[in-house]
Amino acid sequence: MDNKQLGEFIKSIDKDLEIIEGKQFTEVIVPPSQLYYLAHQLREHPEALFDFLFCLSGVDYGQDLGVVYHLRSTVHNHSVVLKTRTSDRKEPHLDSVADIWKTADFHEREVYDLLGIKFNNHPDLRRLFLDSSWGFPLRKDYVDDINIVTK
Asked: 3-134 — its CATH code?
């Protein structure tokens, strides 16, 4: 599937999703409530078979916190990027995809540790690098007088 066909296929799963056709990747803007369903469909559907989550990154957009998922099908040799975000900076929650792609386990823990996004139904959501005294150092509003991290 080329990027245009991939976008059309994803629209057949949910016609309301925003699709952006980039030169390298097809990007899909996914509301948090639809993330898990779409991820599961992309993993299991025979036309998609996105069996490899090769990157999961947390992002602080200023007003929102988000996660970007880079997926690849090793069977069909196509890729897609899913982007989701939440405006809840106090208690950010997104659904975990660790049961769909095992590689998400540590990636989600890293995002939780550095940005504070909690992943619903994660099998072992705990800090990966830092202890609780740190807060969430990759947030744009992070200030740390104890460890002398400044912007």
From this structure: 3.30.460.80
| CA-closest candidate to residue 105, choices 143, 42, 56, 138 | 56
Q: Residue for token digits 């040799």?
A: 77
**What residue has token string 């998609």?**
48
* Entry pTM: 0.93
Is 104:55 a contact under the CB 8 Å cutoff?
no
Query: In the block, which residue shows the tokens 């150092």?
Result: 137
Q: How far apart are CA 150 and CA 70, in angstroms?
A: 31
Q: Which two tokens stand for residue 80?
A: 């897609």
Q: Give residues with Cβ within 8 angstroms of 68, minimum separation 6.
A: 55, 56, 57, 59, 81, 82, 83
Using one digit for the tens of pLDDT, what is the confidence trace for 42-91?
999 999 999 999 999 999 999 999 999 999 999 999 999 999 999 999 99
* Tokens linked to 145: 């007088």
Domain definitions of the chain by residue range: 3-134
What is the C-alpha to C-alpha distance for residues 114 and 127, in angstroms, rounded to an integer?
Answer: 8
Residue 53's Cα: distance from chain center in Å?
10
